[in-house]
Amino acid sequence: MSKIQVKICMGTTCFVMGAAHLQELVEILPEKYPDKVEVSGVTCLELCSDASKYTNAPYVKVNDDVIADATIEKVLKHIERLLENGQE
Amino acid sequence: MFIDIDCTQEKKYNQNTYGDCFMSKRYPEKGELIAVLSDGLGSGIKANILASMTATMLIKFVEAGRSIKRTCEVIMNALPVCKVRKISYSTFSMAQCNEDGDVKIIEEGNPQFVYISDGKVVEPEFTVIDSETFKNRHMHVYKLKLKLGDRLVFCSDGVTQSGLGNPELKLGLRRSGLIKCLLEKINENPDISSSELSKNIVRIAKNTEVDRQAKDDISCCVIHYRHPRKALIFTGPPYHMEKDRHYALEFQQAEGKKAICGGTTANLISRELNIPVLCDITGSVGKLPAVSKMEGIDLVTEGILTLTRTVEYLENGFKEKEKNAASELMDFLLNSDCIEFMVGAKLNQAHYDPNLPIEIEIRKNIIKKMAKILEDKYIKKVIVRYI
Ligand code: FES
Q1: pLDDT level of residue B285 (50, 70, 90 thresholds)
Q2: What pLDDT sits at residue A88?
């Protein structure tokens, strides 16, 4: 079983658009899903520089899926869906 | 050679301002530096005004192109005498140094400076110039040639007279005591920075005072000739993407300490040099993204937000309880002598989107501001290159 990789963008754009709050995921996720997810921060995912969608920061990547306008709830929902679909 | 200079001061007990004044200025184009330590008569605000006036006049005169000898002579002849105490309003030491080690020093009334070379004190020769207007007043003129590792230490009499009346040191620390402390410290740590050494001396002077209360203003200024500590900061992606590799390699091969400020910049270097970026989010402190790690690079931070905050700290001092990325960057800068910025000129469009909750300044402007503060306030040598 491979862990679900959660990458929180800590680049400037994402940070000022609210990624600072997403840091809580570092505590929440391992508690909620021990051994199932791995959270890390990353430098700018370079999604923000795409002019057509940069207003949707902050971005979080869960495995290969990009979550735009990320909130803690959105990330949790996404992980749940992955787990239900037997990602384990 | 690089001239590392710093001064530490302590106010006289119960006074709320310094009665000694230290000023120094670097002239990078000429590779030169002038420094003045002036001790105003008495203490508190009056002394402070007298000392600052003397120091400012000396520096302005030299800046206007006079020789330091002539300058000091004019000031010596002009300084009035206090009616009550019949002594002059202020005393001073002035030094003019260049990067080749040529040093001119003039002293008027201050304790004699200490010249340390190869762990020993050298007593250099001097000429005496008497004042035309005041008898009993004269200045000492020195011409020295310093080499790598040499130090000059200037003190106000608050240092040499500290401990006066202390049962063990009836005459105070005196010059001999000062020399003993200096040699001990330098022996312990031959590379000690000027800021550390001057802090140490002031601490010792204060501790020798009865009840640890400074009876006079205490100042100690240290000048040290050494190899410059170089630092290189890469911030922002280069304007032409084709040049990414070229600049990444240049960055890797440069000597000295290195920092990257900017996530995109870190990604770019990581890609070109094949070094992974390890990002730690648990450590985001004080509303700033945390520092990341990259092998071979001393500091990796986010860009604009961290740089903006660093400028704030450099301007107003760091007052927060916890260290954060900006305070680390500040330490990185202050622990270097020659600082070079490689500033990528590419704009990050996303930063200028009106939907962002805060206004983000243009990188170029922040760096310009930072460079100016580092030069003016912290007397660093700064080079900014736009790439
Ligand atoms: S800052 Fe997050 S994608 Fe650029």
Answers
A1: low
A2: 47
Note the pTM of the prediction, 2 decimals: 0.67
* 3-state SS assignment for residue A51: coil
Q: Say yes or no: CB of residue A75 within 6 Å of ligand 1.
A: no
Using a 6 Å cutoff on CB, does residue A44 contact ligand 1?
yes
Q: Which residues pair with B37 in a beta bridge?
A: B22, B93
- Ligand 1 pocket, residue A47 CB under 6 Å: yes
B258 pLDDT higher than 70? yes
- Answer yes or no: do B164 and B47 share one domain: yes
What distance in Å separates residue B193's CA from the closest CA in chain A? 35
How many CB atoms sit inside 10 A of residue B380's CB? 20
Instruction: Examine the domain organization and report whether B173 and B286 are in the same domain.
Output: no
Chain B residues in contact with A40 (beta carbon < 8 A):
279, 281
Give the pLDDT confidence score for residue B174 in this predicted structure: 86
User: Does B193 lie in the same domain as B95?
Assistant: yes
Q: Whose CA is nearest to atom 1 of ligand 1?
A: A11
Distance A13 CA to ligand 1 centre (A): 5
Choose the final residue of a domain: B226, B241, B274: B226
Q: Which two tokens stand for residue A17?
A: 């658009």
Q: Are residues B48 and B196 in the same domain?
A: yes
Measured from the CB, is residue A39 less than 6 Å from ligand 1? no
- Whether residue A55 and residue B348 make contact (CB cut-off 8 A), yes or no, is no
* Structural domain span for residue B330: 230-386
Which tens digit of pLDDT belongs to each residue from B312-330?
A: 999 998 888 788 899 999 9
Residues B130 and B220 in one domain: yes
